[in-house]
Automatic annotation (TrEMBL):
It is found in: Cell membrane. This is Glycerol transporter. InterPro entries: Aquaporin-like, Aquaporin_transptr, MIP, MIP_CS. It is a multi-pass membrane protein. Keywords: Cell membrane, Membrane, Transmembrane, Transmembrane helix, Transport. The chain crosses the membrane at residues 9-33, 39-58, 87-107, 127-151, 158-182, 202-223.
Length: 238
């Protein structure tokens, strides 16, 4: 494995760990403090700000994916090598586990009592609702990625905060339904650590957190690429 790829994989692992550490940690801290209405806002902002930090810290090394949905969406439009997708996804999943493990190491039994911030279906939410919510949330996130980081005329320097805010926004809307993961690593990490700790994990729901984000992310990637291409072809007068 070449040195460049190793550096990029370590950056993906570290960035995903930062996102999951502070996103999961916020969910645990809100539960521990028994926060009321502001709880969802705190969780959303923690995820968004953590993603922004990770992008600014490691984006120049690995591209700042930190999410299998983003990696696959970029590869589907020829913006990333399919050959490196499996390695990136493994690094991201490892980052999710590391982030969850650090929260568990910090909060111990309190983290377990809060379900380790695992993303699960909300009360009354069915599989179809979960798939739709995860797909729409991923659509918003990947749209932000293409508009702020991929498009040739993207504004400089705002990708991190813009993409982070897109993640936070969809959590505010869909958090009560699914936890608004839109990131297999974010869901897999807590589930894996809960299982290793001898606690129950909602593995039967994992498919929704895989399929929903992929469908929404791919739809956004194709739509954004089409719109950007069309705009470039029309010319400067648009």
């Amino acid at each position: 494995m070449d040195t460049s790829l190793v550096r990029r994989l370590l950056a993906e692992l570290a960035g995903t760990a930062i996102l999951c550490l502070f996103g999961i940690g916020a969910a645990v801290s809100v539960a521990a403090a028994r926060a009321g209405g502001p709880g969802l806002l705190i969780i959303a902002l923690a995820h968004g700000l953590a993603l922004a930090v990770a992008i600014y810290a490691f984006g120049s090394v690995s591209g700042g994916h930190f999410n299998p949905t983003v990696t696959v969406a970029l590869a589907a439009r020829g913006r990333f090598s399919w050959r490196e997708v499996p390695a990136y996804v493994v690094a991201q999943l490892a980052g999710g586990v590391l982030g969850a493990a650090l929260v568990y190491a910090t909060y111990a039994d309190t983290a377990l009592a809060a379900g380790l911030g695992a993303t699960t279906f909300g009360t009354g939410a069915g599989y179809i609702q979960a798939l739709v919510a995860e797909a729409i949330g991923a659509f918003i996130l990947v749209t932000a990625v293409f508009a702020l980081a991929v498009a040739p005329n993207a504004p400089r320097g705002v990708a991190g905060i813009g993409i982070g805010l897109a993640l936070a926004t969809q959590i505010m809307v869909f958090g009560p339904l699914t936890g608004a993961s839109v990131n297999l690593a974010r869901t897999f990490g807590p589930d894996a650590v809960l299982s290793l700790a001898g606690e129950g994990a909602a593995w039967s729901q994992l498919f929704a957190y895989l399929a929903g984000p992929l469908v929404g992310g791919l739809a956004a990637a194709f739509l954004c690429d089409y719109l950007v291409t069309r705009r470039s072809a029309v010319g400067a007068g648009v």
